[in-house]
């Protein structure tokens, strides 16, 4: 089975961010407007001196899937990245990316923004910096080296940012990528990072393939078992019908079904 990181494997800052984000997103979905009134980031808010919003905007998300996909990336990459960077540097990476994403968005757009995406892009960028050849399955199907994936995502974000509009802050994503690049250049690759790259980082491609095979096999086994039980139940019902009304009461399709069932060695009642 695919070795998915457990709760205890996650860095403390990732766990705290996940819990706070889940709580804020749930309150937002329930219509609690004070979450947005306190956390939302926009140019107008900063003009009033509300600088805390450069960090709090990362907590609420626009919905479940927004929250899910952001933290899905963090869930898989955070443990290895924290081991490579250390607890302090990993926390700095997240905070600096959130700050850079917020500043980039405010400079480029007057619209409000929420979400942890800037930090997610920074984590992806730094992971690609340390493990560029590590393959990941895009859409759980296509194996792509992590460095190539980040380059493609960065290019898409840049093109979309030039188009403007839409409900996604592409400039915040680019700010997160820029933060990851700056810190990667500043901190570089140390020997600890290279050791972890060789020994500790999971082989995502092999583990995903194994997981998919096992899950698909279990799914097919359950379907076969359900069909076998359904066929046996139908055989029993037809045998009861024969005992009560005689063989002549069966339709042609029912006779064909019993013939097929007998060839498969189903036990028949007298």
Corresponding CATH superfamily of the largest domain: Rhomboid-like
Q: And the CATH topology of the largest domain?
A: Rhomboid-like fold
Number of strands: 2
Rg (C-alpha, Å)? 27 Å
Enumerate the strands of the largest sheet in spatial order, edge to edge or round the barrel. 1-2
Order of helices and strands: HHHHHHHEEHHHHH
Return the domain count: 2
- Helical stretch count? 12
Q: How much helical structure, as a percent, in the residues?
A: over 70%
User: What composes the largest sheet?
Assistant: 2 strands, antiparallel
Shape: elongated
CATH class of the largest domain: Mainly Alpha
Quaternary organisation: single chain
What is the distance, rounded to the nearest whole angstrom, between the alpha carbons of the first and last residues?
46 Å
Mean pLDDT across the residues is 81
Poorly predicted residue ranges = 191-202, 265-270
How big a fraction of the residues is strand? under 5%
Structural class, by secondary structure, is mainly alpha
The CATH architecture category of the largest domain equals Up-down Bundle
Task: Describe it.
There is one protein chain. The protein is mainly alpha-helical. The chain has 2 domains: 7-202, Up-down Bundle (Rhomboid-like fold); 214-263, no CATH class. Helix content is 71%, strand content 3%. The protein is built from 12 helices and 2 strands. Helix 5 packs across helix 6 (87-108). The model is unreliable at 191-202 and 265-270 (pLDDT under 50).
